[in-house]
Write a sequence for this structure.
DNA sequence: CGCCCTGTTGAATCTGGTCAAACTAAGTGG
DNA sequence: CCACTTAGTTTGACCAGATTCAACAGGGCG
């Protein structure tokens, strides 16, 4: 189940490949006792059906969730009930980490489709961090990444118009699929038009209208939830950003603690 | 300069009170050698005048900045030059932490007024983290807090109208001042109308118009950059959120590593 | 003293939201 | 197998909130 794959970067990818914990990118020198330990932490698996909730805002922080398959949306809401989707999450990502400060989840996570996750008990997780000090460091990197992502979204929400938002969104999905070695030009949208609109801060009708416009212009071809990006160049122009696939799945930088 | 103040929470506030490093909330048992060490890290002080830049996007991650006095704005920009302010920062806050993943600053930080900061060398910082393991944990908490804050902003940008945004903004400033034992109902805005508008995703003219409307309604009194909040209740209603000052400056939770 | 930057106010315009209705696909149960 | 429901999506018409453009006021600073 758990195997070691030494990377030239000086890290080990611990897998359970499709269980997000491997993202923690443990440093070299993990012995078999450690791997056994890790195995213990990822044992708890669980399925969620479309619409089922992983955690709710205010609940005690008991699990970190690693997505194995399927997809999840995370969202927060105003006091008067309007909600904002803050992210869509795919296999290999960890959920719930940012509850570490308040010890309570600050938002809610819902399955978009039938989804399999590993529940990692927080206590175990902290124990793990004690045994393998660089776990904290890796968590820092992951959260730093999330902050970066959220800032990108803030830029989008604050400064872009509806068309740019949708084009940006499609490109960002494309990049994420490319990173995971799926087709960057053909994929399924697991979220509804309503969810997309909510995430991008526009009405679902607007999403629909702009999708049809993109289609008329030949930039994309859409068939219900399946989409083909015909012209990434033009899409980048519409998003007003440059298209690049430079980012790697898990940037395995050298860990400063292994000096 | 550095003094120890044992808190009932099991933490020590290291100060240099007005130097944000104390936010790291070091665990008990810091000996004099450690405090001396810490003193070394916070030695580098520096002043920035209004408009001067602390760091730019893409620059190598060399310093973490702790604000001692004044205020700073952080911002990112689209490829075509539009920029989005992602935060205003006041004394006691740390800047630059989220460069930890890519080793490069992802945005830019600019002084809003004459501002004094401690520059903490990243190398020193990592050394510190090695010596005092809970530093990483405290960084996690700070980043978790930032994520929470950014999510709040995303909610605002995605779902609130101009009036709600401004009311929310004033309340959030009020809370921050209250936390630091300044008046929650009377303070100076160190940022321009343009900056406020940019941050909230609305035009500066809209900021101006709504400020005058609030003033006509008697909710606030504004004299250039000085503002008095006359009616927090009504302001909360306008923001459509409940007013509370429950949050504390530095939530000194028990550190799980000091078991 | 006059310039410049910031902020305020007005008027015209437009993007995107809201409301309403039709349509499609996928179930669901008789 | 078909009527019926339901959720998701698309499209049209209308309208409101916010932007844009423009002019102007006033403080602060050289």
């Amino acid at each position: 189940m758990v195997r070691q794959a030494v990377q030239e970067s000086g890290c080990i990818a611990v897998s359970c490949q499709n269980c997000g914990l491997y993202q923690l990118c443990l440093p070299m020198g993990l012995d078999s006792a450690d791997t056994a330990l890790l195995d213990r932490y990822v044992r708890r698996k669980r399925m969620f059906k479309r619409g089922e909730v992983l955690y709710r805002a205010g609940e005690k922080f008991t699990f970190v969730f690693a997505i194995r398959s399927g997809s999840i949306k995370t969202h927060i809401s105003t006091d008067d009930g309007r909600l904002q989707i803050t992210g869509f999450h795919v296999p290999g990502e960890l959920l719930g980490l940012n509850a570490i400060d308040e010890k309570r989840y600050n938002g809610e996570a819902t399955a978009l489709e039938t989804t399999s996750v590993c529940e990692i008990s927080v206590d175990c997780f902290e124990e793990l961090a004690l045994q393998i000090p660089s776990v904290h460091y890796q968590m820092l990197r992951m959260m730093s990444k999330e902050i970066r992502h959220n800032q990108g979204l803030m830029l989008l929400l604050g400064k872009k118009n509806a068309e740019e938002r949708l084009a940006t969104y499609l490109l960002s999905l494309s990049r994420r699929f490319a990173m995971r070695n799926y087709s960057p030009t053909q994929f399924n949208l697991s979220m509804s038009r309503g969810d997309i609109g909510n995430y991008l801060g526009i009405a679902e009708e607007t999403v629909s209208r702009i999708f049809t416009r993109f289609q008329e212009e030949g930039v994309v071809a859409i068939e219900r939830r399946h989409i083909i990006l015909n012209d990434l160049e033009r899409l980048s122009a519409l998003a007003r950003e440059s298209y690049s696939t430079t980012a790697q799945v898990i940037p395995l930088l050298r860990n400063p603690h292994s000096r």
In short: The two ends of chain A are 29 Å apart (CA to CA). Residues 74 and 87 of chain A are 5 Å apart (CA to CA).
